[in-house]
Amino acid sequence: MSVCFGADNSPEAVGKWAKKCGIFLHPDVAFLVPTKTMGLGVFARKPLKAGSVIVSCPFARCISPYAEKNSVESPCVKALAGMHITDNVLFVVLRLMAEAVRPLSPWMPWLSACPRMPNHFFDVAAVGPVFGLAPSADTGKATTAGVPLKWTGVSQQLHDLNLEGRWSAAQEVIRRHPEHWPEEKATFELFCECLAQVLSRNFYREEIEGREGPYLIPCLDIINHSFTANGKFEVRGGGRKHPMEFCVVAAREICRGEQVLCSYGRIGASRFVVEFQFVTDSIIKEDMLRFSVDVIAEMTLALISLESESLSCAVDLANIQRRIEWLQRLGILFDEGFYVSRLPSAAAEGGDLPASTAKEIQTLFNVFYLLTVGASTFENLTRSINREWQVERKGEVVALVLRLLTMRAEGARAQLAAAEVHFAEAQHHARRKMLQMSLNSELEMIQLLQKHLGEPC
C-alpha cells in the first residue's frame, strides 16, 4: 500500500505550509531534525529564554472531533457527523484516513512529514497468538493457556483499543461514504497506520471541559518525550477576541543545540510500546504494573479455581463483576483498574517506600482480598468499610497476593516465549525487542514486589 506518511519530511516544505496556516514556528528553532535514537526532533538554534513560545497552532488547524459540520476544508466531517460516531478516537482516525486518501488535501504537507509507524500490534491475525487475542487461544476460561497472555501490560493496552469493534465501525462508514473513503484505498492497513498516528500524536487537554480531545496538532507533535522536559504544553486564548491556540513554551532557559522535549506523562512502558512504538531505559525506570478491570476479574476467578476444584464455596464471575462495581462506587477501584509503581531497589530490600507506592500496594491487597473473601464476610464488610479501609496483612492475605504475582509472572514468561516463536522473522524485530523490554520490566517489577513482601526470588 502506498501511503503519504513519511513521503517528504522537508523542514522547508513544512515551514511554508505552517506559515500559510497561521502556525507559529520560532525562528531560532530547527524543526524535523534527525536524531540518533528519537527519530525527528526539534532543536534550539540559539539560546531561548524561559517562557518563549516555541510553536503555536490555532485550534482551527487541528484535526479533532470538534470541527464544524460544514467545514469546507474537511468535507468528510459532515459525513462523520451524520454517522453519529461517539468514539472520539475513531472519529479522528477516520478524518485522518480521509485526508490521507484525499487528492490535494490541505493537510498533506504535514501528513507527508509525519514518519510512518509500521511497528504496531494492531493486526490481530498476525500478532494475536502472542497476546491471547486469536480465536484459537481465547476460550474465555481463566485456566486456559490463552488467558494468561491477556494479563500482561501490553495485552491490556491492546484490549482497551477495541481493535475489532473499531474496525467494524470504520467499515460501515467506508461502505456508506465511498466519496470520502474509497474502498480500494481505505483499507485495514491504512486504518492501522492512521490509528498508530493518532495514538502517537494526539493531545488530550483536560482543562477544556467538554472538548478534551483527542487533538492532532500539527508541528507540536514533532516534539519528543523526556521525563526531564524543558518544554511544556499550554492552551491560550479561547475568548471572543483571542482564538484558542495550543502552544509549547520553554519551561526554562534552553541552550543552543539543545533538543526541545516535553513529557508525555508517566503512563508505563506497555502504553509507550502500544501507542508510541518505543521504550527506553528511562521509561522502564518509571514503569508501572497495571491491573485492568477485566484482568482483575479473570485473575480473581483463576485464584478461586486454584483454591478449590469445586466452586461451590467460591464466587462466580457474575458476583466478581458485581463486587468490582461496588469497589468502583466506593472509590477503591477506578474504571481503568489500578497501578502499582515500580519499587525502588532499596525498598524491596527493606528500605522505606514512597507513600504513594505504599498506597498502591495496599490497593492491591484490598482489591483481591475483597474479591476472593467468602460471601458472608464480604456482605458484612460492605456495611462497615469506606475507601480508606485497609485489609490487615495476615499470612493468608500475603500468600494470596504472592500467588497472584506468581500467576502474573507466568503470563509474562508465556508471552516472552510466544514472541520468540511468532515474532522470529526479521519484519518483527522491532516489535519483539519492544515487547521483550516491556515484559522484562514487568517481571522485574513483580520480583521487586515479591521480595518486598518477603518471598525469596
Automatic annotation (TrEMBL):
GO terms for molecular function: protein-lysine N-methyltransferase activity. CDD domains: SET_LSMT. Coiled coil: none annotated. Pfam families: SET (PF00856). Residues 19-265 form the SET domain. This is SET domain-containing protein. It comes from Trypanosoma cruzi Dm28c.
